[in-house]
């Protein structure tokens, strides 16, 4: 049905040109171009970034200290609480894939973000109410010994609240960054792309920093009702601000289900597996009208990799090609070369994408364990003020904020002198640096834990889980700073890679892959923690239930450092063999002569098979097929 509509649309357009001499259509196209120029741009950024800043503020304020809520308010054991948060974080990584498919298939990014934000707000309201009502959490247990854990009904209220926030996240995460990039059309410039993702991450870091200082302090010193109420209000404000700017946004049309298109290419190639490929790739099937919504900003050029899939675009003469007067095109038997190249792009990206899974698995529980460490250390800044344990993450956020600025202002100009690359280094090289630096963060965490337990042993506090060990909490700062530096390289580079190297019509889906990697990594991290807790022995367990002083947390850190080292080797091999996608940017001449030539050409019969015939389109290769 989609194909027939597009073919009918093309026929009607041609008839209009023939009947009216092309004058009205030219006027309409000029009007559309003028309106398109009036939409998007920098003026939309305050609305979109305000939405994302409020969303990140709410998300961070909600999740940053949740390990304390589960262990102190719901009286859950350390491993169970950490696994609960990690499992829901893992689920929150899968829902963006669903949201991305909905956005790319039929709903569009604007409505997906709006509905997702509303669902997320319902989750925040639910957990705020559960924190306020005494019947929805167990009695307090200040000693943390023989505590009454939350009942099944109380846990179900928690799970439903977390599920709503997880579901809402699926509509927000994959669409906001790509929706913002659509307003600036960053795909046309590598420098614009790098700057956008750097400053986007800077804004997110500022929101995170504010949440870690304000919200966490309120949760620890005022109460959980207020501490969860502030993020709830912030999320509500973000929804209102985002909707207010709706009339200014560029809203690209959904291109149909990307999974369906990928499946069609695979099925068509399998059906013609015995067909011979033409010696000239220009003979492969192309249909510009059918793919018009898929390549607004540029078409994918043919590549020599994975040539078996090219068979999906081989015209054998036995299947309809959708030509005028003929039977409709069946994309399960014949796919356009652009759709074949979309599949190739995704296949090329998967090994690089997969490298992020073990990185997340290695660090998935580190934040929770570090907060529990901080709770046992001296957190006094003065005799009357203590730093909340979760607020230590501000040092990581500060490092990200400072690191993004220094990366843009100092590192890029310096690296450009040696590499000649306008971006300084490629996004793959940037990710590789992030992988390496993150190993140092985990090793640093292990050495700090050794030091903390030595001080606890010297003061005979190993059997006192609630006692304060006389060692400054600032010993934990270096690992936060190193981890923040790793994020400047890895996280920003990963987002830029997925957006830049994905097909234009699948960018929400590609952004969702970032969160899917986080999801799989979180689940893998839960498996690692569960196995370590189960098999590291009853005496001297690496990850004990409540008394961290009797654990061997440093052994766990060494284990995940080794996992990251192996993952780094795998990533380097994948990056060395990665081939960047070649793209042609479609640029129509706007002068009167070129427009007249186009209108005259459209009145002529289309070439057989609709194979790459165009006079008003200049192919400009943006990214070559060279290796990193």
Automatic annotation (TrEMBL):
GO molecular function, one term: transmembrane transporter activity
Signal peptide: none
Membrane topology: Multi-pass membrane protein
Residue stretches spanning the membrane: 118-136, 156-179, 199-218, 224-250, 345-365, 385-407, 512-535, 555-578
Entry keyword set: Membrane, Transmembrane, Transmembrane helix
Chain spans, region Disordered: 1-37, 594-628
A family per Pfam: PTR2
Annotated InterPro entries: MFS_trans_sf, POT_fam
Subcellular location: Membrane
Composition-biased stretches (Basic and acidic residues): 1-17
SUPFAM superfamilies to which the protein is assigned, alphabetical: MFS general substrate transporter
PANTHER family: OLIGOPEPTIDE TRANSPORTER-RELATED (PTHR11654)
Family in the record: Belongs to the major facilitator superfamily. Proton-dependent oligopeptide transporter (POT/PTR) (TC 2.A.17) family.
Protein name stated in the entry: NPF family transporter
């Amino acid at each position: 049905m989609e194909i027939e509509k597009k073919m009918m649309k093309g026929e009607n357009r041609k008839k209009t040109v023939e009947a009216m001499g092309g004058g009205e259509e030219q006027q309409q196209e000029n009007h559309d171009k003028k309106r398109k120029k009036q939409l998007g741009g920098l003026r939309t950024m305050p609305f979109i970034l305000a939405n994302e800043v409020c969303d990140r503020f709410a998300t961070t304020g909600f999740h940053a200290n949740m390990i304390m809520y589960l262990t102190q308010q719901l009286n859950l054991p350390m491993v169970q609480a950490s696994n609960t948060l990690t499992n829901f974080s893992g689920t929150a990584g899968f829902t963006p894939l669903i949201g991305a498919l909905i956005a790319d298939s039929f709903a569009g990014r604007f409505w997906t973000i709006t509905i997702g934000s509303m669902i997320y707000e319902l989750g925040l309201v639910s957990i705020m109410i559960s924190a306020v009502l005494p019947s929805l959490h167990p009695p307090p247990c200040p000693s943390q010994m023989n505590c009454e854990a939350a009942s099944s009904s109380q846990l179900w209220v928690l799970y439903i609240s977390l599920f709503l926030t997880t579901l809402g996240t699926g509509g927000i995460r994959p669409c906001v960054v790509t929706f913002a990039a659509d307003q600036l059309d960053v795909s046309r410039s590598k420098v614009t792309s790098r700057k956008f993702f750097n400053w986007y991450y800077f804004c997110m870091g500022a929101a995170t920093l504010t949440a870690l200082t304000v919200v966490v302090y309120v949760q620890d010193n005022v109460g959980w009702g207020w501490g969860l109420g502030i993020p709830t209000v912030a999320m509500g404000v973000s929804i209102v601000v985002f909707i207010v700017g709706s009339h200014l946004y560029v809203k690209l049309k959904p291109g149909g289900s990307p999974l369906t298109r990928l499946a069609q290419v695979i099925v068509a190639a399998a059906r013609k597996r015995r067909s011979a490929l033409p010696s000239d790739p220009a003979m492969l099937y192309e249909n510009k009208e059918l793919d018009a919504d898929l390549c607004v900003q540029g078409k994918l050029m043919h590549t020599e990799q994975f040539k078996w899939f090219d068979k999906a675009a081989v015209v054998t003469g036995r299947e309809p090609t959708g030509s005028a007067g003929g039977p409709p095109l069946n994309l399960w038997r014949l796919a356009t070369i652009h759709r074949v190249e979309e599949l190739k792009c995704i296949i090329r990206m998967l090994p690089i994408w997969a490298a992020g899974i073990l990185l997340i698995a290695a660090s998935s529980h580190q934040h929770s364990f570090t907060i529990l460490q901080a709770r046992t250390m001296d957190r006094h800044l003065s005799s009357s003020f203590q730093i909340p344990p979760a607020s230590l993450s501000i040092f990581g956020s500060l490092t990200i904020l400072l690191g993004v600025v220094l990366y843009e202002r100092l590192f890029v100009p310096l690296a450009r002198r040696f590499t000649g690359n306008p971006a300084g280094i490629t996004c793959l090289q940037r990710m590789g640096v992030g992988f390496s630096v993150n190993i140092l963060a985990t090793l640093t965490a292990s050495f700090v834990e050794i030091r903390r337990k030595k001080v606890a042993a010297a003061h005979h506090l190993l059997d006192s889980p609630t006692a304060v060990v006389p060692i400054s909490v600032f010993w934990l700062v270096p690992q936060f700073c190193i981890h923040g530096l790793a994020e400047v390289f890895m996280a920003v580079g990963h987002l830029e890679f997925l957006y830049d190297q994905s097909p234009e019509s699948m960018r929400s889906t590609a952004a969702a892959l970032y969160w899917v990697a986080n999801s799989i990594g979180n689940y893998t991290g839960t498996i690692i923690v569960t196995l370590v807790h189960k098999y590291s022995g009853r005496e001297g367990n690496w990850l004990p239930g409540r008394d961290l002083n009797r654990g061997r947390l440093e052994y766990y850190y060494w284990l995940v450092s080794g996992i990251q080292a192996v993952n780094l080797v795998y990533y380097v091999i994948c990056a060395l063999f990665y081939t960047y996608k070649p793209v042609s940017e479609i640029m129509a001449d706007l002068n009167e002569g070129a427009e007249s030539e186009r209108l005259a050409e459209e009145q002529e019969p289309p070439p057989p098979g609709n194979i790459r015939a165009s006079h008003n389109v200049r192919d400009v290769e943006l990214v070559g097929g060279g290796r990193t």
